[in-house]
TrEMBL record, chain A:
Stretches of the chain forming a coiled coil according to its record: none
Localisation: Periplasm
Residues passing through the membrane, by range: none
An annotated GO BP: polyamine transport
Name of this protein: ABC transporter substrate-binding protein
Organism: Actinoplanes awajinensis subsp. mycoplanecinus
TrEMBL record, chain B:
Protein name, entry field: ABC transporter permease
Any GO BP annotation: transmembrane transport
InterPro entries per UniProt: MetI-like (IPR000515), MetI-like_sf (IPR035906)
CC annotations in GO: plasma membrane
Protein family: Belongs to the binding-protein-dependent transport system permease family. CysTW subfamily.
Membrane topology (UniProt): Multi-pass membrane protein
TM stretches of this protein: 12-37, 70-91, 103-124, 144-174, 195-217, 253-273
Length: 416, 287
């Protein structure tokens, strides 16, 4: 389900990264008095890239850590029923008070926001955070900002998680993370405004929708759609393909078709009629329709879509890591995984939840029953083989240079 | 003892402000200057290497946004002068007893957060919002018509947000005009237009000068209005700095762009001060 034949990127990064010593730096800069003074203001390294985790890292981190009865949890908006039934259940069961905050809107800004505290080995105010397998996931991991997980504290995960999740290239063997949910990036549209069905990526380039098309500002998300629209596969793309994709995206922008490049705010823009069709994350649209009574459609384009995973992680400076890991395991109880999926409509990492949802449906009547039955068979929550064939992962990078090259190709599109 | 006190007094007086400036202006500036010449990436840290290429990249990659920001700032400032002068004039000369009420009304919206006010404009102007929806329903506008996302929306937002910063200095300058000066002009048979051109306007110039300084600089480097009311075709340089610093963690590039912007704005202000010959104006106002 999650095929990867590339070596662990962190390993390669550790081997290929060019390290710049301070002495070299000064020689390069010319040691003037001003130079030396300015050099004193350097931003310290964020720790060495971790090629692998020390064998005793787990033991070292968890030694002496105890349950504190409280937990600060950072997540994305639209990622849980606003009434938070699962959190209430967790508190009732464990006595742990949870402060649940929807503070993550986009990976880049989130990393930039917490990075200074983490570098200074200070708490970021959260014990648990859900982060995407993005460029920033690698940065969090390589900078040593993520606590290694003690799998002896995750019995439900071991019993119930889809086995393929242990094979995801960004965190082989789930050393630092376990999935919260996976999701699909496709196209959402307002049928009343577009006046026709949207089926393919090419529709995002249709001049008839000038100024009414939304795209994502995240470079990985944007690049994947550019690549697929240009008939290229993200999986085996390199600089040449990226340039072609960027040209395709620039053409869309220069023709005035793109209204804006959005973070999570695309949902609002769609709701306000600012965009008629937009790049979108699968579950958001379902929830928007349920909570606001809208009738937006979500499709996986003919040319293909993107699949990603959002992951539970514990920042290394967390004050309550034991409470955090208990919460992680709690969501791998089949019942809780099912109740979460029933609300958020994202890909569920617990296969047994499908049966549970069917069971839940049997206890309901009328509209609720129909909704749950539809959900249990929805390819957006439990994708089948054929669905996976159409879905592509984010572009993988072997070196930091490669990743910076990628960024410099796609950033100018969103930033001009 | 007294003499020592007298010699020390000015230094003691300047001490709190001086320390403040040292701590909150000089230190960050030097840090930023250093950052702008560093190289590296966020995981391995940035090191000082005297990397001037950052400045070259800043100018070549983001020239468009820089020029766009200056144009927006300039248009905003001109619109502000044209709008603010009549307002300030009316309050100063015809406000009567209610002057302070009018000034209070002018400032009233600014008791609400800047970002919130800009977002409420978005609610009003949005494509299917209270303004455009009825017009579209009535068939007066095409369904695709939009105000948000255009330069007009961004400049409109800037004008709205900076209005008091232009009105108040002009008001203060006008308020200070001695009514006898105007009477004297009238006694010398000047028609109202001449009184305005030869007496009132020149005496109000220091206010205009201050207003321009207080609006052009922040308007050019603003990023909220473009982010909330604009689109990808109205990106201003402030947004680029914000994205580089807060989304990409590319602190050297963010700093290099900031310094370049500062240099351009300083040069602009310097030329402007020279052209307007403010020194004479200030002297006239002081008399």
């Amino acid at each position: 389900m999650f095929p990867t034949n590339k070596p662990d990127p962190s390993l390669l990064r550790g081997m290929t990264q060019r390290r710049l010593g301070r002495r070299d730096a000064l020689r390069l800069g010319g040691v003037s008095a001003l130079g030396a003074f300015l050099a004193a203001c350097g931003v310290e390294g964020k720790g060495k890239p971790q090629a692998s985790v020390a064998p005793d890292a787990v033991e070292k981190f968890w030694a002496g850590k105890a349950q504190n009865g409280k937990l600060d949890f950072a997540n994305w908006p639209l990622y849980m029923d606003p009434k938070k039934p699962e959190i209430a259940k967790f508190t009732a069961k464990t006595g742990i008070k949870v402060n649940y905050q929807e503070v993550i809107q986009e990976m880049g800004p989130w990393f930039a926001k917490v990075q200074p505290q983490l570098s200074a080995k200070q708490s970021i105010g959260f014990d648990l955070m859900v982060i995407t397998n993005s460029i920033q996931f690698g940065q969090f991991r390589d900078a040593g900002f993520l606590a290694p997980l003690d799998h002896s504290k995750l019995p439900n995960y071991a019993a119930n998680a889809g086995k393929a999740y242990a094979q995801e290239s960004f965190d082989m063997g789930n050393v630092f993370s376990i999935p919260w949910a996976s999701g699909i990036t496709g196209i959402a549209y307002d049928r009343k405004k577009t006046g026709r069905d949207i089926t393919k990526l090419a529709d995002l380039w249709d001049p008839a929708f000038k100024g009414k098309v939304g795209m994502f500002s995240d470079t990985q998300e944007l690049a994947n759609f550019g690549l697929l629209a240009a008939g290229l596969k993200p999986g085996d793309s390199g600089e040449e393909e990226w340039k072609k994709a960027a040209a395709k995206l620039k053409e869309q922008k220069d023709a005035g078709i793109v209204r804006n490049y959005y973070d999570q705010s695309y949902v609002d823009a769609l709701g306000k009629g600012e965009v008629w069709l937009t790049q979108a994350w699968s579950g958001d649209i379902f929830q928007k329709n349920v909570s606001d009574g809208t009738d937006f459609q979500f499709i996986i384009p003919e040319e293909g879509g993107t699949i990603w995973t959002d992951n539970f992680t514990i920042p290394v400076t967390a004050a309550n890591p034991v409470d955090a890991i208990m919460m992680m395991d709690f969501f791998y109880e089949v019942e809780n995984a099912a109740s979460l999926a029933e609300y958020i409509n994202y890909v569920c990492p617990v296969p047994a939840a499908q049966e549970q949802i069917k069971k839940d449906a049997a206890t309901k009547t009328g509209e609720d029953k129909a909704l749950l039955e539809k959900l249990a068979t929805s390819p957006l929550v439990f994708p089948g083989e054929a669905d996976y064939a159409k879905l592509h992962y984010y572009v993988d990078f072997n070196t930091a240079e490669e990743q910076q090259g990628f960024q410099s190709i796609f950033e100018p599109i969103t930033l001009s | 003892m007294n003499r020592v006190k007298r010699t020390l007094a000015p230094y003691l007086l300047v001490l709190p402000g001086g320390l403040w400036l040292l701590l909150f202006f000089v230190v960050p500036m030097v840090t930023m200057l250093s950052l702008s010449l560093q190289q590296g990436d966020v995981v391995n840290g940035y090191r000082f290497t005297g990397h001037w290429q950052n400045y070259v990249d800043a100018v070549t990659d983001y020239r468009t946004q820089m020029i766009r920001s200056l144009v927006y700032g300039l248009v905003t400032t001109v619109v502000l002068v044209v709008m603010s002068f009549p307002i300030a004039y009316w309050i100063a000369f015809y406000g009567g007893k209610r002057k302070s009420t009018y000034l209070f009304l002018l400032l009233l919206p600014f008791f609400v957060s800047f970002v919130l006010r800009t977002i409420s404009w978005r609610q009003i102007l949005t494509d299917d919002g209270m303004l455009l929806h009825p017009l579209k329903e009535a068939g007066l506008l095409s369904p695709g018509f939009h105000i948000l996302g255009t330069s007009y929306a961004v400049i409109g937002g800037l004008v709205y947000n900076f209005l008091p910063f232009m009105v108040l200095p002009i008001y203060v300058a006008l308020e200070r005009i001695d009514s006898r000066v105007i009477e004297a002009a009238q006694d010398l048979y000047a028609v109202p237009a001449t009184v305005f051109r030869k007496v009132v306007f020149p005496l109000a110039l220091p206010g205009v000068f201050a207003g321009v300084l207080m609006t052009f600089v922040p308007a050019s480097s603003d990023y909220v209005n473009s982010a909330v009311l604009g689109s990808s075709s109205t990106t201003m340089i402030g947004q680029v700095v914000q994205a580089q610093a807060l989304a990409n963690s590319n602190y050297p590039m963010a700093s290099a762009i900031s310094f370049t912007l500062m240099a351009v704005l300083l040069a602009g202000i310097f030329v402007y001060a020279r052209l307007l010959g403010t020194e004479d104006v200030m002297k006239a106002a002081a008399r």
